[in-house]
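Researcher: Here's a chain I'd like modeled. Treat it as a single chain, no partners, no ligands.
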Amino acid sequence: MDDGMVALVAAGCGLLGSVLGSGVTAWAAKAGADKSAETVLGQTHDQAANEHAHWLRQQRLSACEGFLDAWDECTRTRKELARRTEGSQPDANRADLSRSASRMLERARRIAILGPGEVSQAAESISEAMLKNIEREDEFGKYMESAVSRMREQQSQIHNLAPNLHWGPLREAFRHAHDVEELQQRYSLEELDRIVTDAEGSTEETQEWLRRMTAFGELGEEVNNEGARFLQEFQRNIQVAEENREVFVRTVRSSIASPPQRDV
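Model: Modeled as a single isolated chain. Structure tokens:
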């Protein structure tokens, strides 16, 4: 091989080495850039996840505070209604109470959007128990107004219908029933007819009076049963609200103390 060929081969090897070196360098640079981009992307994702978790925690806290504010408002309205003075407007106060309980349910449903589920379930159970008691109170109040009106009406009818008993003359006539002659001497047919008629009228009045007294007693028993049923339902709803209040407080504290779990 002459000197020219050697020079040519050497130049070719040098060019090949230069090309390969550039390729390796470019590959290494690209790999490094990809790794850096992946690191930056991971850091950005983690930062965004942390910011979202913080935002979600704040939103949950705000929703729970809104629910507690509505609950406090409902409690205050109920106390004001219990202390209402003569001349106030109970219907308007009852409407305010219903609106307060409805706001509780609305804010409980906002918690349902944000979570956690256990908190929203407890808040909705508390709100529904409050609403049920308010609705039941209204129903029972209307029932009692009607029942008291009926009882007064029946009392008046019983008082006005007090039977005018005319059994004395009939008993006296029966004493002489065994002696027809003496009976004829003492009473004319018209008098006997009047005595019997008066006694029959007394019997009918007494039967009607007893019927109305029975109806009055049945109404009183109905009122007692309805009152017992109302108290049972009212106490059950209070128990539901109290049990869920404990769950609500416990789960809210837990959810605020720990960050929301992020789906992977």
